[in-house]
Each structure stands twice: as C-alpha cells, then as structure tokens.
Amino acid sequence: MDSFVFKRNELLAQKTIKGLNSRNMSGYYAASKEEALRLALDLIPEGSQVTMGGGMSVHEIGLVQALKEGKYDFIDRDEIADKRAAMLAAYDADVFLSSTNAMTDDGVLINIDGNANRVSAIAQGPKKVIFIVGMNKVCSDEDAAMKRARNLAAPANVQRFGLNTPCAKTGTCANCKSPDTICCQFLITRFSRHEGRIHVILVNDELGF
C-alpha cells in the first residue's frame, strides 16, 4: 500500500472511531492484519462461546484459525450439519463475529442479508459483537455506504455463492426480486443502546468485499 494512502487511512480511522464512540460503540485501529488479530483476541476471553456470520474479513486476519486452535468454544456452522441450529446458537453466544458491508466515516454500519441470521444477530442476542472492517469499506455518508453495499458487496457475494441474480451477471444492483437475491434484509446500525456490546476493529488494509 502506498505510504500516503496508508496515512490517509490512519487519519480517517481516527475520525471514524470518534464517530463510533459517539454512538455508544467501541472503535479500534489496527495498522495490519496481525495487529487486528491481537486486538480481536484481547476482546474474546478464553472459554467464550464464539460464532460468526459469513464475513470473509474474519478469515483474512486469521481469527477463525486462531479460535479453532485456542481455548474457545467456536461454533463453525460450515462444519455443523444442522445449519439452522448453528445459526440459532448465535443468539445466545458470548461473542458474534462479523464484518460489515459498508460503514460511514462517522460510525454508521450498513449491512444487507439474505437469510437475516447475520443482521438479526448484530441487532440483538449475542452478548458482544466484534466487527473486522478493512478501511476500503469506509464511505463518506449513508447514501454512499448503501450504494457500496448494494453495488459492490452484494454482487461479489452472489458470485462467491454461485447464485443466479441479475447482479451476478452485470456486477451492479438491479433492485431485483430474484429467488436467489441476498438483498432481503437491510440493517442500519446508528447507535448501540448497550454500552460495551459492539466493537469495530478498523484495519489499514483492503479486506473482504
């Protein structure tokens, strides 16, 4: 990464952290994936029951592997035959891990979901929610964040899952009602009523979609 872009991201992260704090959410800055991993593990006590949505960023910093190898009760829905049971377990977990499809530079999180297990767990249930967010997902305002979620994150994810939607073919949102659409539920998280529940680790790297 160019040193000027790195510095720009660092400064933007500090602004975003102030925005998160003003919304009763905790923000952190990590200069690298390795630092992000250390910060995340500091927030997860050993023995915690941990689960997650489908966030690629969580994998990219090595957090999933660290949890599997450590002293944690990690529920890996990819390794459980009963997917519904794995999803329901998230609502009573100690920690839920996710990324975000996009966020604003003053701390508003934008997420789109197909089955709603991820957005519903973000909104209510798990005692603690930890987001791993690359600085590539930070946008100037809610409109820009929503456009990013719909026109960048959603098409990339439907292609990843091999789904048959217009955006899988064109790369841009068609506001479709396809049976395969993953744009079923939209969650805007602008404030956390529960102090200490939502934690956002901003990583000075390009993570996820």
3D architecture notes:
There is one protein chain. A hairpin with a 4-residue loop joins strand 5 (102-104) and strand 6. The protein has 209 residues and is of the alpha/beta class. The strands form two sheets. Strands 1-10-7-4-2-3 form a six-stranded parallel beta sheet. Strands 8-5-6-9 form a four-stranded mixed beta sheet, with helices on both faces. The protein has one domain (3-203): Rossmann fold (3-Layer(aba) Sandwich), CATH 3.40.50. 39% of the residues lie in helices and 21% in strands. The protein has eight helices and ten strands.
Topology:
Elements: H1 3-22, E1 26-30, H2 33-42, E2 49-52, H3 56-60, H4 63-69, E3 73-74, H5 83-89, E4 95-98, E5 102-104, E6 109-113, H6 117-123, E7 128-134, E8 138-139, H7 142-161, H8 166-170, E9 185-189, E10 198-203
Parallel strand pairs: 1-10, 2-3, 2-4, 4-7, 5-8, 7-10
Antiparallel strand pairs: 5-6, 6-9
Question: What's this, in brief?
Answer:
This protein is an alpha/beta fold. The protein is built from eight helices and ten strands.
CATH class (first level) name: Alpha Beta
Query: Would you identify the CATH architecture?
Result: 3-Layer(aba) Sandwich
Question: Any idea how many domains?
Answer: 1
* Tally of helical runs: 8
By oligomeric state, this entry counts as single chain
Poorly predicted ranges:
none
Task: Examine the coordinates and then state which fold CATH places here, giving the name of the CATH topology.
Answer: Rossmann fold
Helix content: 25-40%
